[in-house]
Specification:
The structure is a homotetramer.
Chain A (H helix, E strand, L loop, with lengths): L3 E9 L4 H11 L3 E10 L4 E9 L4 H12 L4 E3 L6 E7 L4 H11 L5 E8 L5 H6 L4 E3 L7 H13 L5 E4 L8 H6 L4 E5 L11 H8 L3 E8 L9 E8 L6 H24 L3 E4 L2 E4 L1
Parallel strand pairs in A: 5-6, 5-8, 6-7, 8-9
Antiparallel strand pairs in A: 1-3, 1-4, 2-3, 9-10, 10-11, 12-13
Helix pairs in contact in A: 1-2, 3-8, 7-8
Chain lengths: 278, 278, 278, 278
């Protein structure tokens, strides 16, 4: 369907919201294909994601919706448009490799504009897929200096999202502020267990029987941003910390890919420190 | 909330359905709390489950809805009403015991009116919970004779649902016809694998690495009714058929309890040989 | 098999240990049915659990094993013997109810000698199964006073294991010292996430997408003892803290039952703050 | 450890086997690192996989073991040796891509000698990794003719294992006979559910709530060979057959990679139509 659209509404709850919104669509002869709503009772906030079909005058539709709703709203009129992203990574290839393969076969709903890394070991992998690779070493640079260099490299791409595919550096609030709610990280633990460095070592030492991975938006608290997706696998006493790390890589890459798919299909709303995922 | 209601709509799809329905609620000053819709694209059929709050004249509301919708619809005006059920079982206690404990602590959204069994071994367990137990042996009876006796016992209870908690007898279409789409069975395999008798033995012989259980509505084809819920667990070569059976019991009781919770909260629509679960 | 036995060895590793042990069994004409070993490389410690069959002079066998091994070892000569346990609980019935049903049908590998609670709400449930119930209120007692009263009640039963089936009180080290490595607790989170009180509320506030439960031995650090078993389920933004708590109960009861099964079959070795589970 | 070895024994059970085997190792001053045994009670068959360290004269060790055991046995004296494999595929890239990335980073325990396909669409992907690609179209060839051409291409590589990474053609017994117990397939369903063509379509039509994938050895019955590994994911009524197929791809690639890891570490014994997996 060429005339498929996606409406995303995120506003304070009010009586009759669904009625008003669907009425505007109906009056414009637009057909709802799929509809999800949720009201957060604690904050009295309304979320709606609607897929609909039909010919429309976008400006006019937004005008009508805003008139009735008296609220801010987002409308995505070309939902199949791919998001522009840049991937940041360090030395581990498993998440990056998985994303590159998906990208090569047009399964990512995104354009990978470039890959940026503080090491150059992944350059040959990225080169195979014909994507620009920026090696920006952190050696001899302060964190702000390094981040400024990364920001500068990103400037020419103007990405909508940054994907941290095992980027093993903490980001300063200033850096994060440039991509507010648009940085997605994969953390190699079942958060909030094992926040911080070496989560597999921590998991090994604690003797857990399950390990996991967490994809989340990055905010200014380390490993504290809104969680998008998590998954786990069983381990046992026979797993060394290194075995856990190896087994965990598959979970990491799957969780990151799943989270990206959700975000790039506009299925994820951020609400405070949580996500609404339709 | 005392004035909480539940609207269940199941009809051919049409443009503007959500708009029309939510408009009736809005005009009646009713507030939508939770809303789920789904359109089956293959059959062009619409499903909606809405929780809403407010004072209402039920007859009048239904009249208004029907006028606009020109379709059949179900409305449940007292969603916290418990369903009346009778449990059928044979000799295994695990599903029955789990349901009795939940019932004793008011977690089942149902009234267990009676338990009917073709054996008497579970009578002492049922007695602990003060529920009538009907022992109707199949010995010396033809299947139709036995089923007639069971139907007669059920008559005085007039249950809305029959729960087959490991009732190890095949039911004739005539029996099923009395409780069309109102009989829920737990099958001890991950259907459609291992249909029929001795699924754990079949699973053992096939050397599978995962076993499961399936809760489904019963129709006239053995193990072929609409699936409500399924779950699985890992097994390995160390499991005998008996070990699988033992491990599977926990899956069975959990899946059955989950399916019943969904059905008794009016979250399950039957559509042909499938379910829509909100 | 009446003459089935179980040998449990837990000692510093040494070259040829398996050879020496299996040689003693072979010389005594005993047939190994099932054998599990593990060497912890970090601590150089050896663990072995062997099921074997045959007629034996237990004292003589132990003497021979000790001569060759020059180490402490445990031998269980009647592995089908049921462990004597007492259950401690507070107000929640789901774990207790599950254990009582299993016990009633001889599936627990344990004798429930009594149930002790600081509340009396679960007395009627326990009474159904004909098990002594001790109501020992903590009202008006200091923690040491209350624990002394509980210890006194336990004295007459001399249990091998205490099972904390949602016993919602912290235990002093002195109490724990009486049952060292013999207290099993179910914690309603995926430890080490959400240590302490109200884990479901914590999980809700963090916005996690998976919740879990952890069965562990109790030591002197709150929620820090060796983990025996864990399991998880998916949740989403639609779950309130209360919904999580409700959904979590099924995980809790399943994980506790699984952990007890493992412990009561002598499959769990404690090693520092971890478990080896065969 | 350079002098690490792996002993694989697969023989009829006999009293004292473990004792005899470990005694030979002990007498040769070899240290057992890891040991797994299993006796299949139905067939009275013994399986053992032992990792051990030390200097050895391989011929002499095998001679001693055979003398004592009077049985056939396999000994792998260089367990870190990579297996030589050829991958067969058709048009789908997800399993192949995953294996290529793993191979590029030396995580596969195997050398991919070549990729053979009956289509040429995956040639560019394989080319990125510098691996020979053989396009052997089945167009205009009978099945035996096509298989003969494939066999001929395989000849020069002499692979130990063939990996069917979504090779969508049925193999004749004659072809399979050339690689008896050495062909590993990934089937896109939770076998034995949905044997044969279009399993996701079958799953969609049956309305299952869980779908899965199965890695298995290939024998002469379609989808009937010994199962190595399986995994599943939840689906619901919102999944079209195509959505299931898409979601299933991640399960397929993970299960295949896990199965290959197990096989290439010599952890999988084939026993009749089942596997023993250590």
């Amino acid at each position: 369907m060429n005339n498929l659209h996606r409406l995303l509404i995120d506003c304070p709850d009010d009586k009759g919201l669904i009625c008003k919104i669907t009425n505007v669509l109906f009056q414009n002869n637009l057909n709802i294909i799929k509809n999800d709503e949720y009201v957060d009772k604690n904050t009295n906030h309304f979320f709606m994601r609607t897929e609909f079909a039909g010919d429309l005058d976008a400006k006019e539709l937004v005008k009508q919706l805003k008139k009735d709703l008296k609220t801010d709203l987002r409308i995505e009129l070309n939902p199949n448009r791919k998001k522009d992203i840049v991937i940041l990574c360090t030395k581990e290839h498993h998440c990056l490799g998985d994303l590159l393969i998906r990208y090569a076969y047009d399964e990512l709903n995104a354009n990978i504009l470039a890959v940026v890394s503080n090491h150059n070991v992944l350059q040959p992998l990225v080169a195979k897929f014909g994507i620009p690779f920026h090696y920006i070493s952190h050696q001899g640079k302060s964190r702000p200096e390094h981040e400024a260099a990364v920001l500068k490299a990103l400037e020419i791409y103007n990405p909508e999202y940054l994907v941290l595919a095992k980027y093993m550096r903490i980001l300063n609030p200033e850096f994060v502020g440039h991509y507010n709610n648009r940085i997605i990280n994969i953390h190699h633990s079942f958060l909030p267990a094992f926040i911080g460095a070496n989560p597999y070592k921590q998991a090994f030492e604690r003797g857990v029987k399950i390990i996991g991975a967490t994809a989340h938006f990055v905010n200014n608290e380390l490993d504290e941003g809104p969680i998008i997706a998590q998954n786990v696998i069983d381990v046992n006493h026979r797993y060394s910390a290194k075995d856990m790390s190896r087994a965990g890589k598959d979970v990491e890459k799957n969780v990151l890919a799943r989270a990206l798919k959700l975000v790039f299909q506009d299925r994820v709303f951020i609400h405070g420190n949580k996500t609404i995922v339709f």
